[in-house]
Specification:
Layout lengths: L8 H19 L7 E5 L5 H10 L3 E4 L2 H10 L5 E4 L8 H4 L5 E5 L2 H14 L3 E7 L15 H9 L4 E8 L11 H15 L6 E7 L6 H6 L4 E4 L1 H4 L8
Parallel strand pairs: 1-2, 1-8, 2-3, 3-4, 4-5, 5-6, 6-7
The chain binds pyridoxal-5'-phosphate.
Length: 238
């Protein structure tokens, strides 16, 4: 078991940052095109504060309650990303608070976001989550259904579709997921060509600790790194 004391968030961030830079260079991309999201789920606030001091301003959480609790005690200029599956009955707690909801995968969920956003008079930026490998166990829409969902969501005036997100299979080798990243990138290009009102495809959220460099080579504009920054998660000792 890893000792909390031994996790050096700043050192880890330095390494992740260097790898991001190297991947950008290989891909001929500008470092500024890629946002690093520090995925802090299950991790104590002190570790998030370390990451904040280092310079992180984008944090990702996958549970509404945990996100709200951390938001209350951490600096106001943090951009919070909801990256986990979102239940419709939890929408009301986060609308207007998140920089981006990465996990919209049904019209029903989008309509619930719209309802609360309209009430508050805010616009909510979202990504559509795609189940790139068509895994039974995963959330997200099938590739062939993405355009239909994007069109439907585009009609909701308080939601802005900014792009696509995907969680590919757990990979043994970072190369294994390159094909999925490529497909999602291509899908975003196809959708962008439709010129749908209220829809842009500028954000591509993919790449985690094991494959963020490959993801950057394949066009990711947001990578979501947890373990690589905060160490392994231990769900048993929470
Ligand atoms: C936990 C999580 C991550 C981070 O995973 P690591 O492998 O720890 O980097 C990224 N995206 C989502 C949606 C997650 O739930």
């Amino acid at each position: 078991m890893m000792d909390r004391e031994k996790i050096n968030v700043c050192e880890n961030l330095e390494e992740v940052e260097q790898r991001i830079r190297a991947a950008c260079e290989r891909a001929g991309r500008d470092r500024g095109e890629v946002t690093l999201i520090a995925v802090s789920k299950t991790k104590p606030v002190e570790l998030l504060e370390d990451a904040y001091r280092w310079g992180c301003r984008d944090f990702g959480e996958n549970k509404v309650q945990e996100l709200c609790e951390k938001m209350e005690v951490l600096p106001q200029d943090i951009r919070w990303h909801m990256i986990g599956h979102l239940q419709t009955n939890k929408v009301k707690y986060i609308v207007g608070k998140t920089a981006l909801i990465h996990s919209v995968d049904s019209l029903r969920l989008a309509e619930e976001i719209e309802r609360h956003a309209a009430k508050l008079g805010v616009t909510v930026p979202v990504l559509i989550e795609v189940n790139a490998a068509q895994e039974e166990s995963k959330f997200g829409v099938k590739k062939e259904e993405v355009l239909t969902l994007v069109r439907a969501v585009s009609a909701l005036p308080h939601i802005e579709v900014r792009g696509l997100m995907t969680i590919p299979p757990v990979a043994e080798n970072p190369e294994d997921n390159r094909v999925y990243f490529r497909e999602i990138k291509q899908l975003s290009v196809d959708i962008a060509m439709e010129n749908i009102d209220n829809v842009s495809m500028k954000v591509l959220s993919y790449g985690m600790t094991d494959d963020y460099e490959t993801a950057i080579e394949e066009g990711a504009t947001m990578v979501r790194v947890g373990t690589g920054i905060f160490g392994a998660r231990n769900y048993n000792i929470v």
